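Quick one: structure tokens for this chain, please?
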Amino acid sequence: MTTRKSEIDSFLAAHGYAGWNATPLAGDASSRRYQRLTSTGGTLAVLMDWPPADGGDTRPFAELAEDLRARGVSAPEILAEDHAKGLLLIEDLGDALFTEVIAADATAELPLYRAAVDLLVHLHDTPAPALPPLGPRIMAEMTGLAFSEYRSAILGDPAEAARIRFENRFEDILRNHLQGDMVFVHRDFHAQNLLWLPERDGIAKVGVIDFQDAKAGHRAYDLVSLLQDARRDVPAGIEMQMIDHYIRATGVEEASFRSAYTVTGVQRNMRILGIFARLSQQFGKHHYIDLVPRVWDHFERGLNHPALASVAEELLSALPAPTPEAMERLRA
């Protein structure tokens, strides 16, 4: 019996879950592992296994789950915890991911996205917890992955001078367009991290997971994450309707919010290009490269906005498009 299995068995036994059947659940891009636990009577729970030795820290998830639940959000209830060992037992919110519900019923797409936007409106209307800020300098530096990982994997050259020049200019653009009060930012608010819970009421119909990396940031960030999804095509009509819906529901100034949305989209998609390249190159997770063309399309479309006019041409020259040859190099 491995040491880790012994730790898990002891943790489960200590909290009354010994003997429950364990089934692995699909993980994500991190080192976290999940198991669905089922009692003989059919009661469900989920075990999060995130060892500190692998860089895990279960505290932020537990703390943020409690904060979100206090706001009326359907985050998983924390059933048991051992942060020193990187173990959490959490409520099982089921399998009705937005991606699966929409795949089974295309007519559900619009109402589900509207419900997700309503949840963001609610979150942005309440004070954010004390979280590290996602400010212009940090956001600008995060785009550097597009040079150091994505470009470097394709061309073998991270273009350091171009990266530094762009980050400095982009920081000014972000500072000019991302103004206003900071709100709770999930950072991975998309259809594969949202669950449909129709038996609940109001905003609680949307279940939320994978929020442990939340920050305080601009209100456009999670809307971009939702509508410029790296993992699925969100119809352009739905994207436009949901932006309109958010603007009407919150009363934000329209022109400035649309500019902030676009600038944030370019920032986020540049970072994702770098992350997917790194996952492929360093961790052998080559399936993420299949998503690169969609991310590139979001990125390239955003550069058409006047707010990015001063950097668009230089950026498109520095970052190679995901041609078939480039995709093969990213997979290598």
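The first strand starts at residue 21 and ends at 25.
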